[in-house]
Amino acid sequence: MKLTVIVSTPFRRRRCCLKINHWSGGIALRRLGSDGFAVLLVCEPSETDEHKEGYHWSLPGGKCCDRSIKEGKIVDCCSETPEQTLVREFKEETGYDVVPGAVFEKQDKINHLKFFFRMRSISGQILQKSIPGGKTSPQWFPINKLPRNLFISHRQMIGKYILALMVMSPR
After folding, report:
1. pLDDT tens readout for residues 111-127
2. pLDDT of res. 16
3. InterPro entries given for it (predicted)?
4. Distance CA 24, CA 103 (A)
5. Of the candidates 119, 64, 66, 68, which has an alpha carbon nearest to the alpha carbon of residue 94?
6. 3-class SS at 20?
7. What's the alpha-carbon Rg for the chain, to the nearest Å?
8. What domain range includes position 42?
9. Are 101 and 90 in contact, with CB atoms under 8 Å apart?
């Protein structure tokens, strides 16, 4: 996923990496009998004032941003594939071992790429980390009872995913 381009400016020519950093997340669902699905979410501290509780819920996932030094300068380069990032982040945040499936959606952001994966399989033991309010993270939430302080973009992604499932396998 490393793209290299030569940038020419009036001052100098330099080699730089373009769009090499990425965020990988996964949508893990489990059936709740005939009542629908539950989605796995993780809780993290909020870095903005957007959530009054001081924390927010999100889909499991994270960035690949390795810092390295080349020719005396700090360079952000990613040594993992998006799939490898997903496997590592899922294990760190949830305790589960996952086998990623196909990319459900890829988003091209200003300084990175964002990948949302389907899950082929999930195994292992869920982590139990304490969070504010006496709850634990990660948690399985019924689709119709998602937490209020779930990232809006992740709420939308879950909705898109459920809709795609309904279209692919109508009752």
Report:
1. 778 889 999 999 999 99
2. 43
3. NUDIX_hydrolase-like_dom_sf (IPR015797), NUDIX_hydrolase_dom (IPR000086)
4. 10
5. 119
6. coil
7. 18
8. 3-168
9. no
CA atoms within 13 A on the CB side of 33: 1
Of 20-29, 62-71, 88-97, highest mean pLDDT: 88-97
Read off the DSSP letter of residue 67.
E
50 sits in the region (left: phi over 0; alpha: psi -120 to 50; else beta) called: alpha
Q: What is the number of structural domains in the chain? A: 1
Per-residue pLDDT reduced to its tens digit, 47-79: 665 556 677 899 999 887 655 545 655 555 667
Q: Give the three-class secondary structure for 90.
A: helix
Amino acid residing at 43: C
User: pLDDT digit string (tens) for 119-160?
Assistant: 999 999 999 888 766 778 899 999 999 999 998 989 999 999
In whole angstroms, give the CA distance from residue 59 to residue 86.
Answer: 11
Q: How far is CA 96 from CA 38, 58, 108, 121, 145, in A?
A: 16, 16, 27, 10, 22
- Residue 57, domain CATH: 3.90.79.10
Euclidean distance between CA atoms 88 and 91, whole angstroms: 5
